[in-house]
Amino acid sequence: MPVEPSKIAVTVNGEPISLEEFDNEFRLIKIYYSAVSEGEMRAIKLRLFEQVIDRHILVQEARRLGLKLTQAEVDDAFRGAFKDMPDDFLVILRTQGVSVESWKRKLLQEKLVQKLVKKEVNDKTNVSARQVEDYYWSHLGDYWMPEAVRARHLVVQRKQRFDQVMAALKKGEGFSKIAETFSQEPDSSQGGDWHFMETDRLPPAYLSALAKLKPGEISKPLKDDFGYHLFQLIEWRPRRMRTLAEVQDQIHDELLKRAQDEAFDQWVLILKKKAKIKVKQDVAPVIGAALEGHREQ
Q1: Which of 80, 103, 149, 292 has the smallest number of CB atoms closer than 10 Å to its CB?
Q2: How far apart are CA 257 and CA 166, in angstroms?
Q3: pTM (2 d.p.)
Q4: What is the C-alpha separation between 241 and 235, in angstroms, rounded?
Q5: Residues 6 or more apart from 237 whose CB is under 8 A from it?
Q6: DSSP letters along 156-189, please?
Q7: How far apart are the C-alpha atoms of 80 and 89, rounded to whole Å?
Q8: Tens digits of per-residue pLDDT, 194-218?
């Protein structure tokens, strides 16, 4: 859509970006940052201008490479976007003064950029098994698993309710079912199972009660300021080092994400150095700090 010269804020490789587009972007971002301070909003707005210009550079690169979104990708983009939005999102857009067309245009630009980045950066970035192994052995301290215990825990505050618990146990009802029925702990819906809890996070009295048990056994009643407690031991987990096989996928994903981020930053920097960005002098005080060196003279 042609932009009137008087409404051009920035040109990127000769392609105009209007003040209206920047304004729409800012109105959209205000939907998510309505509660921040004025100083924070200025910083957000400044970063937003940079992002708009970066996105235009990347959309131009996608066009240069002949990349387009298929109709299926367009449909998926809108379907996914609306899935995560509140039911009144279109009303919110109108309240902020943003047209649906502007929002859709921004969304499709972002999806095209994602497709470009996948092709030009992510798919070309790899992490070898040797890199994963080297990282593991040089960061062994990160892979210690502390001693932990898994148990079911039941607690009630009143003695009368605890007597009901003991009566149910005497009848042979399962601990998990009793905990789900009577316990006042947040994990009662899971039968009192707190999963693996690091032993240094547990009160000494709890550890002492659990130390006397074999898996499946139930402790003697324990009373403290929180009420009446019972524990059923499931499993002790000794302190040990996680093996390379256990963590190699995690390490691979972390290293790959880091490598992709670094490759992306370098790639965008090269594209921006090649780009001809000109900021209109009359809007330079608004966005010039983010684009120093690109103002029209």
Answers
A1: 292
A2: 53
A3: 0.73
A4: 18
A5: 145, 147, 148, 149, 150, 196
A6: ESSHHHHHHHHHHHHTT--HHHHHHHH--SGGGG
A7: 14
A8: 999 999 999 999 999 999 999 999 9
